[in-house]
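Researcher: Here's the sequence for the chain we discussed earlier.
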Amino acid sequence: MDQTQEKRHRIKLLAVDMDGTCLDGRSRMSRETVEALREAARAGITVVPTTGRNLHCLPHRLAGERDIYRYVISSNGAVVTDCRTGKDLFRSMIPKETALGLLRDCRRTGAGITAHLHHEYLIQGRLLVLLGRLIYGKDARGVYRVKSMERTIARSRYGVEEIQFYFLRPGVRERLEKLLKRTRGLTWASTSIYVEVFSEKTSKGMALAALAERLGIKKEETACIGDGENDLPMFRAAGLKMAMGNAVPELREKADIILPSNGRGGAAKGIRLCLPR
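Model: Thanks. This is the structure I predict for it:
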């Protein structure tokens, strides 16, 4: 038995990314993937959906499947929630004053603004509400429109999980990145259409390590599956690392196993590789 096979047979905790991993290019989760997750849970593996989404925008195919999972890592690791008790076990928030200062500085950039606050996806303005419904579809249970993100956050008693700025006009990205470089205590990741901003102490890896420690599970008993740059910290926290065939090159380079793509059942295959033999 080689080293990778040996790792596979002692997995107790499995962290699985959602978009680009369990979900295909049209944000659909197949019946095969759901059944593979159920098989892992029945085998005694603690299955943890691990996502950049907020908790209330978890894929609807999983929302009613509480026999599959108990814990969720959401907002790129800002929160770990025990869905059985409704309690957050771990939080890594953007301080309110930091969030408000950033929003004030970004008023004239022309960016669209969304945020994750207390498990909800808040959107400033009607245009982005339509975009949010388009992106999340049936998963948009936790999407709400606000008139002013600054006022909403200022009045809230909850910490800010994440802020996203959308590049709605030319030059917005460049102006935002200049502002972000001057703001302390934050980290960010960009796509072609938006930048997501969170605390410098936030990552899927930090959240996964915190949950594993709480459950008394060792690193070598932890596995993960992912596809994006935000999954790299999760790879550092896991003993067995699986990358999707559609994953970014940096993730594939660090993977123990490279699976088929998200359009070819790769997640289901990876999940079943962790089942005890």
